[in-house]
Design a protein that fits this description.
410 residues, 11 strands, six-stranded parallel sheet
Length: 410
Amino acid sequence: MATATAPEPSSEPAPEPLPLDGITVVAVEQAVSAPFATRQLADLGARVIKVERPDGGDFARGYDTAAHGLASHFVWANRGKESIALDLKDPRGREVLHGLLAGADVFVQNLAQGAAARLGLDSAALCARYPRLVAVDVSGYGPEGPYAHKRAYDMLVQCEAGLVSVTGTPEQPVKAGIPAADIAAAMYAFSGVLAALLRRGVTGRGGRVEVSMLDALAEWMGHPLHHTMHGGEQPVRTGLAHAVIAPYDAYATADGDRVLLSVQNDREWARLARQVLERPELADDPAYATNTARTSNREKTDAVVAEALGRLGADEAIGRLEAAAIACARLNSVAQLAGHPQLAARDRWREVGSPAGPLRALLPPIGLPGGAAPHMGAVPALGEHTEALLRALGMADAQISELRRDGVIG
């Protein structure tokens, strides 16, 4: 009788687990800064329990209806989370929250300044009660100082941090087209959690993490800040141009597109003059040969480049620039980003579930080759996981019904 042959062992090693697999995060969060931070944690495998108000939830749910009826901010910042609708002003709601915190590793909140402390949910109180907990306070301006209680929305902080003063044209300052202050705070909160978890692995204790939107964006303002403090002058607003490098701007092409190029040194200028502009005499012309000369004669420099690129289509202009090893890019629209060939070629798009059906979403930027795929779970409906979470805490159906009747849960 023939015997069965054992299958050959697989030569492919099992993928490494996601680095935050087994970590539980509880977040009392709204808008962008804290939700975007906790979404990064969810992408890396953490279980994120999002606590929302029963009467409407995170107010970012109502910002717009652009994502198949859902708010685009909310879809972007909240995939992969569980939603529990809980009234924290009711002692029974806070009791449920503490039941969740007893088994949590991380707590994140970005309530209005002072609100968390009034509820006993500030990081100092929680770390005293739960020594292994990493407790994160995300605020607009920090917990003390004359601005501590000011309302802190993204555009307001962009203004306070001076970002708007260096963004735009000479005639008109403009805000960044993305919520830069929110994103800055989110990313420092995210990295702060990772650092605190590493420290806990050594000491056994969690600890407090504080991040403010102003502090985060002020750090991102490092170049203009140091330029101004140590050089005595604030960089001027130059639209798409660079304040201290020329040519470094977007130029119209013959087919109506715009191509941005960047000359980083005088050798590159010589190549640009000879191979792209077809004006070899400009390579050594004292009016253009050095960056100092080109920035001093910015209008003439830009005019020379604009005249040459204006005779070319965008594809031909990009081709010449790349052949000359000059850094360049197309000035894309958001729709063109959604169809960007590099994102498509690298298979960066996935679908995530949502109450409105499948939605396209980008893979998270942190790649972990050889590891498990990022967790890209569905965008939750308000209170979608309330009953399941309460039952996991041991709550009986009668108790759940009572809380729902009294509006403590939703």
